Amino acid sequence: MSEVHSSKWLYIDVGNSRTKVAASDGTVVRVLGCIDTPEELTPWLEGVEAVLVASVGHDDWLSGLQRLMGRLAIPLFHAEVQESFGSIKNCYDNPLQMGVDRWLAVIGAAQLTDTAFVVLDFGTAINVEFVDSQHHYLGGWITPGISLMYKALFGGTSKVRGNISEHAGLAPGTTTQKAVDAGCLAAALGVLEQASVQGSKMAVNPTIFVCGGDYPRIQSLVRTKVQHEPDLVFLGMQKYLEQIRGQTD
Ligand SMILES: Nc1ncnc2c1ncn2[C@@H]1O[C@H](COP(=O)(O)OP(=O)(O)O)[C@@H](O)[C@H]1O
Ligand SMILES: CC(C)(COP(=O)(O)O)[C@@H](O)C(=O)NCCC(=O)O
Ligand SMILES: [K+]
To answer: Which domain holds residue 166?
Structure first.
């Protein structure tokens, strides 16, 4: 394992809105940034021993990445949802149906607590994961993320029109734009509140982890006790790669 710990790995998280990249030397995960095309990885690939990709986005992106890694002869691993990871048991009926970003966030969060926990990822979708004190993943919720809520309103009504905005406040709106802004934030905050209620049915005071690109939009309005861990998916990827490298070494 000492060989694995001294090497440099790259992690790629392909979401439905954007692709995030991080690097790790086996101990610390460092987020490098977001990219639009696989070629933009090039400056970060020097000295990289292996790349792990987790994708819930477009397959085209993966084909481009495969070609690039093939050209550079860098091993590329694809993260997949498993029936279990260490002591974490996946109770999804068909784990292959589950988004791999969700599973990796669960694996990442499990490194940070021994108790029951809930994960909320405020990305394109807001997905919520429930894990009990035996670290059994019980399943979760998938709801539209804040930007998707705006798009659903603009696309599914005749008269609600406006922009996806950066406004942060819950005061009753006196224009269509303000009403939509406050309403979408209230809906996202409501998911958090209900996740806390549901989580406390599973255990007393489960840790509530939050992450995702939209979390900063609601952060100042959150009254529930949460632990903000923006890099949960990458933490999960680090553990995951350690496991598969252990199997293949
Ligand atoms: N530069 C950006 N590009 C895309 N989305 C962004 C950006 N900055 C903030 N966001 C917000 O973050 C959300 C995406 O969060 P993220 O966690 O990256 O999602 P995903 O994993 O689904 O791609 C978007 O819905 C958007 O509202
Ligand atoms: C729920 C998701 C859309 C979240 O994607 P994201 O917001 O991170 O882009 C993704 O994990 C997914 O496509 N899941 C497949 C269905 C499932 O998890 O059951
Ligand atoms: K998400």
So the answer is: 113-228
Is the residue at 85 inside a domain? no
Q: Are residues 148 and 49 in the same domain?
A: no
What's the ipTM?
0.98
Residue 145 beta carbon below 6 angstroms from any ligand 1 atom:
yes
Cα angle 222, 228, 234; round to 5: 145
Same domain as 241, residue 189: no
HEC secondary structure over 54-118: EECCCHHHHHHHHHHHHHHCCCEEECCCCCEECCEEECCCCHHHCCHHHHHHHHHHHCCCCCCEE
Query: Which residues have C-beta under 5 Å from ligand 3, the single-atom ion?
Result: 121, 123, 125, 127
9-35 tens-digit pLDDT = 999 999 999 999 999 987 899 999 999
Query: Are 243 and 207 found together in one domain?
Result: no
Q: Is the distance from the beta carbon of residue 214 to the nearest atom of ligand 1 less than 6 Å?
A: yes
